Amino acid sequence: MKKNDENKELLYKAVLLLKTEDECRAFFEDLCTPQELNAISQRLNVANMLTDGKVYNAIVEETGASTATISRVNKTLNYQAAGGYKTVFERMKGDK
Description:
Elements: H1 3-17, H2 21-31, H3 34-51, H4 56-63, H5 67-79, H6 84-95
């Protein structure tokens, strides 16, 4: 296994060990710079809005994301999806 793959596996295993929202928040605040955390959370929000059928202009207004970011997220959702966004959004809706 390549080192980058090993690094990713360590990250995935670490995330799965987190049990509460507070633990998750602390972990990601330790792991990421504020800019990285903002970028990741913005992409998740953009994906959620696209899944809900919002249009680019509304997403730009509400999130401040660039159209390039929105386009990349949209491409992932529609053409390269591994199913992660779908799984998370379905579970979030089930928790409401």
